[in-house]
């Protein structure tokens, strides 16, 4: 009966940032709430998307394997920043940022923690008890998304959605539980039961209309300096897997920037290349972002293309990476390798000649394994390094000379 009760706040054991994307995508079907989830946290960046709302949301994912086994994860998010995680082992909220309490008093935080613990515990037990009446079939997964938004500094929308097996199931609208369209008689049945509990509805309403907007506003305030931090991107280009004969996939990588909004485009001069494909902006472990932008071109078209990056941290000084620069570098590397190979062959031939003379003392060093010998005075360990060299012929020729060198060095 406490089912869905105190839907509240912060949350569960989270297995790190990598789960964020999967948590978010698993909510993809919660269409009503989806817009708020995908709204990036945009602060202090004049970007068209800056009109999008800021949100705080609580995510819960509960998996029920059978009538005796269930596992719940829950976490709290300010936009795309995880601020709280529920530790299911200790039954406490882990505050992930120094400012995760907002301006909530110790006492209010304690109360919320108690409410959350009671809720999560009751949720699991009650779902198990009601599973057959509600026609939940094991194994199943329930998800809860609870949160609120702010637009132009004012609280706008609050929402509470529930999903069963990854599909919209019910939501809290006004002051009652409503089955989602298409969720069928199972959802109608659950809502009918839930709607009998007036106290639960009042708690949910208060959390949606008061607690969440207050928390959101105070987190935005408390976390301001971190949220508005400007970190410059690094950018580099590389060649991706060939899309086909005579074609190149140019890849521009942009990494380490904050905040998230970024503009990256393949250009020819001032001309944006319409074939530019933008990947998803992915999180780095340190809270910065990564983006990959590709362009499929014929080999002949690649010359003269540039990758251009605009970001709020760059103060109008766009990063421009030339594809040519990269290919010149590659050519230089190839040339260098060829020159070295040629030298090796020449040296090799000289040794063959000299070995017939049997009298060289200071040969050139044709293999990197040999260069370690100046650091390694011990003949046996150097001998071992020599064994690593693939050319046994060189080894046998050098051993004598090298021993001479070791004597000279020591
Ligand atoms: C319930 O599921 C868990 C996890 O899959 C499993 O380890 C356990 O044996 C199951 N218990 C029963 C009674 O089926
Ligand atoms: C999500 O919704 C789409 C279209 O409504 C549906 O085809 C898909 O099966 C749903 N995904 C899940 C996991 O229910
Ligand atoms: C907490 O912050 C919110 C929003 O920033 C503000 O409206 C409220 O008055 C603050 N409460 C206290 C106790 O400072």
UniProtKB/TrEMBL annotation:
<dbReference type="GO" id="GO:0030883">
    <property type="term" value="F:endogenous lipid antigen binding"/>
</dbReference>
<keyword id="KW-0812">Transmembrane</keyword>
<dbReference type="Pfam" id="PF16497">
    <property type="entry name" value="MHC_I_3"/>
</dbReference>
<dbReference type="GO" id="GO:0010008">
    <property type="term" value="C:endosome membrane"/>
</dbReference>
<dbReference type="GO" id="GO:0071723">
    <property type="term" value="F:lipopeptide binding"/>
</dbReference>
<keyword id="KW-1133">Transmembrane helix</keyword>
<dbReference type="InterPro" id="IPR050208">
    <property type="entry name" value="MHC_class-I_related"/>
</dbReference>
<dbReference type="GO" id="GO:0030884">
    <property type="term" value="F:exogenous lipid antigen binding"/>
</dbReference>
<dbReference type="InterPro" id="IPR013783">
    <property type="entry name" value="Ig-like_fold"/>
</dbReference>
<dbReference type="InterPro" id="IPR011161">
    <property type="entry name" value="MHC_I-like_Ag-recog"/>
</dbReference>
<dbReference type="Pfam" id="PF07654">
    <property type="entry name" value="C1-set"/>
</dbReference>
<dbReference type="GO" id="GO:0001916">
    <property type="term" value="P:positive regulation of T cell mediated cytotoxicity"/>
</dbReference>
<dbReference type="InterPro" id="IPR011162">
    <property type="entry name" value="MHC_I/II-like_Ag-recog"/>
</dbReference>
<dbReference type="GO" id="GO:0048007">
    <property type="term" value="P:antigen processing and presentation, exogenous lipid antigen via MHC class Ib"/>
</dbReference>
<keyword id="KW-0732">Signal</keyword>
<keyword id="KW-0967">Endosome</keyword>
<dbReference type="InterPro" id="IPR037055">
    <property type="entry name" value="MHC_I-like_Ag-recog_sf"/>
</dbReference>
<dbReference type="InterPro" id="IPR036179">
    <property type="entry name" value="Ig-like_dom_sf"/>
</dbReference>
<feature type="signal peptide">
    <location>
        <begin position="1"/>
        <end position="16"/>
    </location>
</feature>
<keyword id="KW-0325">Glycoprotein</keyword>
<dbReference type="InterPro" id="IPR007110">
    <property type="entry name" value="Ig-like_dom"/>
</dbReference>
<keyword id="KW-0391">Immunity</keyword>
<dbReference type="GO" id="GO:0006955">
    <property type="term" value="P:immune response"/>
</dbReference>
<dbReference type="GO" id="GO:0005615">
    <property type="term" value="C:extracellular space"/>
</dbReference>
<keyword id="KW-0393">Immunoglobulin domain</keyword>
<feature type="domain" description="Ig-like">
    <location>
        <begin position="213"/>
        <end position="313"/>
    </location>
</feature>
<dbReference type="InterPro" id="IPR003597">
    <property type="entry name" value="Ig_C1-set"/>
</dbReference>
<protein>
    <recommendedName>
        <fullName>Ig-like domain-containing protein</fullName>
    </recommendedName>
</protein>
<dbReference type="GO" id="GO:0009897">
    <property type="term" value="C:external side of plasma membrane"/>
</dbReference>
<keyword id="KW-0472">Membrane</keyword>
<feature type="transmembrane region" description="Helical">
    <location>
        <begin position="328"/>
        <end position="347"/>
    </location>
</feature>
<dbReference type="GO" id="GO:0048006">
    <property type="term" value="P:antigen processing and presentation, endogenous lipid antigen via MHC class Ib"/>
</dbReference>
